Amino acid sequence: MEISIALFSLAVLIVIGVCVGLVLAVVGYKRLFENKMQDRRHDAKELQLKAMVAEKAARRSDEEIPTEDENLTDSGIFSVLEMMDALVSGGNLDEAEKLALNAIHNHRDRANVPVNLAVIYFKAGRKSAFLAVVRNMSSKKLDVPEDAWRRLAVMGLEIAPEEPVFSALLECDGPSNSATFH
Q1: Is residue 56 classed exposed, middle or buried when 0-12, 13-18 and 19+ CB atoms within 10 A define those classes?
Q2: The CATH fold of domain 68-171
């Protein structure tokens, strides 16, 4: 009788071991499958981004006179601002941020690049980075268009409603003595 209880216990342990092994194998396969799917989604986003950039480049005619934005190019084919927009629309906020920071470093006097960087931080939900960019633009007194300040103010009210300066920005043409960050 003791032998049959021991054999039964051994059989139960073997069955439990096999079940645990199967569960671990299924979990491992699921993780492998999820990683492959994530890689495919990333590759699809990259292809979509390249297609968007190629489409924008193809729309340009050789006779067009370059605008101020087109003078700020990374390869001479399309503007950095268009590339940032394409990256943001493709959900690649980290790459858009890197591109914007590089453009700011190379073109410190341009107001539209920090505005785009603030938008990137807003879309990424990075409140402190958003506030830092807006504060920096305010302190440097960059020539930011009124509509851009209003857009930043609306975003600021959403991401940082406790900052009173954003409601003041909506009432004026941008940072003034009454609407500055501290």
Answers
A1: middle
A2: 1.25.40
Tally of CB atoms within 10 A around 100: 26
- Residue-wise pLDDT for 108-153, tens only, equals 777 888 998 999 999 999 999 999 998 888 888 778 888 888 899 8
Phi and psi of 149, rounded to 5°? -60, -40
In angstroms, the Cα distances linking 149 to 53, 73, 157 are 28, 24, 12
> 3-class SS at 73?
strand
Q: What amino acid occupies position 96? A: A
7-19 burial: b if 16+ Cβ within 10 Å, else e: eeeeeeeeeeeee
